[in-house]
Amino acid sequence: MTKYFSRHFDYLTKCRIHNNAMGNVARMIKNVLNTCDDRASDQENKALVINSLSEYLHERIILSAKLIAKEAASKINDGDVILTYGRSNLIEKAIIEAYMQQKKKFSIIIVDGRPL
Q1: Contacts of 114 (CB under 8 A, 6+ apart)
Q2: How far apart are the first and last CA of the chain?
């Protein structure tokens, strides 16, 4: 499976600029593939990889984003004017956190926002 993964990962890096996050995920998947049992079926090994990816997504991305958004929201004070360039999911979560959970009143200026 490692051989096939490497081939597909090489293809992905040709399609998109390689960044640290991609490298971290690739290393995690290679580590999981190296722990796969040769005696196990392909389905069992695939399930192991999928479960590991789900845990990685939850622990390293979703929970991290929530923590960052909460910390960023704590930096927003009543009456602040927030200037942001374009749209960022993480900034959006921080703004929603500050407004909905922490009940802060502030203004937002979005410069060069895309259609969405």
Answers
A1: 86, 87
A2: 39
Helix (H) or strand (E) holding 62: none
Per-residue pLDDT of 10-44, as tens digits, reads: 888 888 777 788 888 888 888 888 888 888 888 88
Q: At what angle do helices 20-35 and 2-15 cross, to 10 degrees?
A: 170
- Count H helices, E strands: the chain? 5, 2
| Cβ-proximal residues to 52 (8 Å cutoff; 6+ apart), any chain | 28, 29, 32
> Scanning the structure block, which residue is given the tokens 């390293």?
60
- The pTM assigned to this predicted structure is 0.67
